[in-house]
């Protein structure tokens, strides 16, 4: 779809980073350890933090993301900044002939995400939406053992994170993070990847806040009905009103169950319970970065497509609309991956 003939050991992929946070640091370290890439520049929100980031990785500072996406010495833009800005930066990078890697979600807006995928194809440029939850030990263990539980009829996925006090940062900001299940799109994407098409969504969401832009807690309770007949219950919450941290995934099938609590898992069948080995969660962004370089240089297939991420975004947006209207929302057939 795009020309990758210019990339080689003699002509590495030149990368510009948007963002200086935790994800950007992991991206930078992965890029610097791979001779097929050359990290050129970074842009961030805070001048002092951006200068320190640039010193740590010996790269140049650019004054704005608008300037970064226009630079001739950059082939690939990696977007590791607040969720609100993903779409607009990706659009301008693609328009300027850059390949793009962006953390999920591609955009907070479904229509914009569709436009970006179409734009990447028209520009013949690579667009990758990171979904490292699919590479992690939990997801791989789920895929490996799913066939042993027979027809799956119910799934429960709970992730809650108490924080006392809640940090006043972008992940607790309505505009910067977006609706909880859009900003935390991986909670739904794991289910869609495993179980396919969603028919309907019913979601209830609540915020606790003392100022307009930032909140101290959110709690999102969502029920999904899948085309297969599977029912799923997803709970996502964070902040000061929560008192017990939980990361639990349950799969209930006609012949058994899979229960993952934190980093421990078991397969439960009639008369026996077997432990399941769950791989580590560390190093996944580095793995994603390596796979991106493999794909750009050698054409190696990636583990997820932008269209698959878009479909989950549509499901998450249905959850948003359901929460706002207090009604069950049907996910239209045309959104099938």
TrEMBL record:
Q: Which InterPro entries match?
A: Gfo/Idh/MocA-like_OxRdtase_C, Gfo/Idh/MocA-like_OxRdtase_N, Gfo/Idh/MocA_Oxidoreductases, NAD(P)-bd_dom_sf
Positions of the Gfo/Idh/MocA-like oxidoreductase N-terminal domain: 13-131
Q: Which Pfam families match?
A: GFO_IDH_MocA (PF01408), GFO_IDH_MocA_C (PF02894)
Q: Where is the Gfo/Idh/MocA-like oxidoreductase C-terminal domain?
A: 149-327
Query: Which GO MF terms are attached to this record?
Result: nucleotide binding
Q: Which family does it belong to?
A: Belongs to the Gfo/Idh/MocA family.
Name the UniProt record assigns to this protein: Gfo/Idh/MocA family oxidoreductase
- Organism field: Brasilonema sennae CENA114
